[in-house]
Amino acid sequence: MAKIEIDRRYCKSCGLCIGVCPKHLIRWSEEAGETGFFVEQVEEETCSGCRLCGIMCPDAAIRVYR
Ligand code: SF4
Ligand code: SF4
Predict the structure, then answer these.
(1) pLDDT tens for residues 35-64?
(2) Ligand 2 — pocket residues by CB below 6 A?
(3) How many CA atoms lie within 13 A of 41 on its CB side?
(4) Which residue in 6, 14, 22, 51 is deepest, having the highest Cβ count within 10 Å?
């Protein structure tokens, strides 16, 4: 099992991580900051730890733990 952590201080709400997750485990949150809505992980237990979301994030806001 793996999990991700999203650091909201760096997230600029671009949504790139949502599109890149092969398991569709990242979605828009209902909470927003200065740049728009944050993202959040769903169904944490099915995350493979592939790290695609962390690699894609242009602001290094995502850490992947395996
Ligand atoms: S790719 Fe990074 S900056 Fe863009 S929405 Fe996802 S966590 Fe935020
Ligand atoms: S590590 Fe891979 S499976 Fe897990 S949330 Fe990121 S892109 Fe999706």
Answers:
(1) 999 999 998 889 999 999 999 999 999 999
(2) 2, 4, 20-21, 23, 25-26, 41, 47-53, 64
(3) 25
(4) 6
